[in-house]
Write a structure and sequence with these properties.
The chain is of the alpha+beta class. It has two domains: 3-75; 91-203, Winged helix-like DNA-binding domain superfamily/Winged helix DNA-binding domain (Arc Repressor Mutant, subunit A, Orthogonal Bundle). It contains eight helices and six strands; from the N terminus they run αββαβααβααββαα. The chain has a three-stranded antiparallel β-sheet. It has a three-stranded antiparallel β-sheet with strand order 4-6-5. Strand 5 and strand 6 form a beta hairpin. The protein starts with a helix and ends with a helix.
Amino acid sequence: MNRSLTRALRRTAVYRLYDAEQRLLYVGVTSTPTTRWASHARSKPWWGEVARFALEWHDHEPGALSAERAAIQAERPTYNMQHNATCPPRLEDRAYLAPYERVAMDLRAAIVAGAYGVGTRVPGITQLGKRYGVSEMTAHRALKLLTEEGLIEPRRGVGLFVLERDGWDAIVIPVGRPENVARKLIQCLSREDLLAVKNALDAELMRTN
């Protein structure tokens, strides 16, 4: 029996990692939980948040992978990237932005996608700093930017909360400063959307020339 088939047929667990407040942090698969915990402890900056885990064993790896995908899509763990539509991409994927702008862009995308509903509290300065591996000053600037945009509001002694969603899909464009227009678009759009805008502008300029 070849190695790939042996691996596919071995018993595999879907694991869930929770923090002390029972929030789901991560979902994954493994056939050797102890080895996987050691790997996460070395490589995951959020490992210190883990307070408990749960294992769900499956008879073979394909079944576990299918269950993992379904769990991520349905339960939306905080730190999963793959299969999780509301989980923001890694900050290094947007290296063309300042760190606070990258954090703000990711949190903005999560809010617009519905991961944080109207009236719900968003992560604070300390939580954001730990989640993204940035300083508290960077996290503060990110939250300040979203506050100025009208996405969230501070409530003294309680935290930051999501405001009503009217106008969230609008981008306010500064007039007379092309470099500021570019900066604003970079803050609000993904790289794919930026390329689409560039192509549309190129086509429009060619048409009008």
